[in-house]
Structure formats: structure tokens, C-alpha cells
Amino acid sequence: xxxxxxxxxxxxxxxxxxxxxxxxxxxxxxxxxxxxxxxxxxxxxxxxxxxxxxxxxxxxxxxxxxxxxxxxxxxxxxxxxxxxxxxxxxxxxxxxxxxxxxxxxxxxxxxxxxxxxxxxxxxxxxxxxxxxxxxxxxxxxxxxxxxxxxxxxxxxxxxxxxxxxxxxxxxxxxxxxxxxxxxxxxxxxxxxxxxxxxxxxxxxxxxxxxxxxxxxxxxxxxxxxxxxxxxxxxxxxxxxxxxxxxxxxxxxxxxxxxxxxxxxxxxxxxxxxxxxxxxxxxxxxxxxxxx
Length: 291
Fold this sequence. Notes:
By secondary structure, the protein is an alpha+beta fold. It is about 40% helix and about 20% strand.
């Protein structure tokens, strides 16, 4: 064989060996530094605190707390939101699609101080917040852009007119102009005729106690409902042992849940005593016996 051909074969063989050797070392080289780097990272940058089940979503308990406290506790709201400003936009579902934001909570109880604080932290106002603040021109403009929106209900089935009226809760701390704007808005909404939500039957105070108590539909500790009186002294339904949304009477022992049109709650009697309640939604019907 020609010597030049032999030399070329030897060179190719040597080159192939170098490539294979380099590849093997490359694979090892790629894997070893990764393991070493991970170890170094964990050593030099240890994690602080363990992830909770919902991580990386916010802890549900934290969201619930800031929305709940936004009804009445400015100091706690500041403590929570100063630390995590994103909580200014927090929204919580109480029951059956009854969604409420932190600023929505402050709005329907007339806490202008909490509203203004949350706005300063990036909260998003809606027509109900503007109504509480007596923003007459803003509310009127929204209604003109979307006729009929004045009949929409806010959290817990609370009407737009109710938000406007509660806007005077802190009247002693408001300017004359702010008070005048609130009253002007109330007059405007009353003139529209449909800004106070649906009409429901009153439940006499003497009848409320017979509905109160716990109702069970299963053997589990939480498989049941509690009927209690809420802050507005309305009957409310929640998970057993907990508060829930208001019940609005629509007929004899028949109620709507917190303005949710698809949820119907009825009570069954044995003589003068309530023996059970039934919660009906579009997909199920749950009967719970009073205990």
C-alpha cells in the first residue's frame, strides 16, 4: 500500500480516538460541574422557609385575611399590604361565587380610609367603590356607557344604591363637597328606580331563631352548614362552624344565597320546628338535617 495512504489512515484513526476521548470527557465534564454547581448553590444560597401547598400562589389564608380585615381594620390591612403590596388587589370567594376584593370589602361598609389606602397601593376600583366615594360624575358616566349596570349587585348581593348611602358613614371626617357629592349621587340613583337591587321579603325578628343552628349532610366533620346572623342581622349560610353569605327570602321558607341567582336554599319543617334544609344548585341538591 502506498505510504501516503497509510499515513492518512493513521492520522484519521488518531483523530477519531481524540474525538471519542474528548466526547467522553465532555459528557463527564458536563455532568460533573452541574452536580458540583448545584451543591455549591445549595450551600451558599440556602432556602429560607418552606413552600406551602399552594406555592407559588399566595397563601389562601393570607388572601382571606386581607379581604376580611378590609371591612374594619386599617392597621392590620396596612401591616399586610405594606409587606406585600400585591395584596391590595386580593380577591376572595366566600361561598358559591360570592367574590369580594379587599377594596370591595372596604367599599360596602363605607370605610373611606381603607379605600384610599388600598388605592395608594394599586387596588383597582369599580363602580361600587366610586359610588361609596360619592364620585357622581364617574358613576353617572359609567351608567351612560352601560345602561342598566346600576341594577348589578356587588359582593354579598349588596346594591349600588346601598354603596352610595354607606358612603356617608364617615361624614364627620368628610369635606362639605364630599358630603354634597354623596347626596347628589344618592338622589340620582334613587331617581333611576332600579339601583337598589331586587326586592326581598322581610324575615321577622321573631322568626329568625328557628332557622339558626347546624345542619349535617354527611359524616365528615365539615360536611354540613351553619345558619347564623351576619353583621347586618340577616340570616346567613356557611360551612359548618363558619360564617357565610346572606340569605334573601323569596318565598315561604325559600331563600336566594347572597345574590347568587343559581343557588336556592329551602327549609323543611316538622310542625313548627325546622328539621332540614336543602341547597340546590344547577348540578346538585344537598339535603342537610338539623342537629
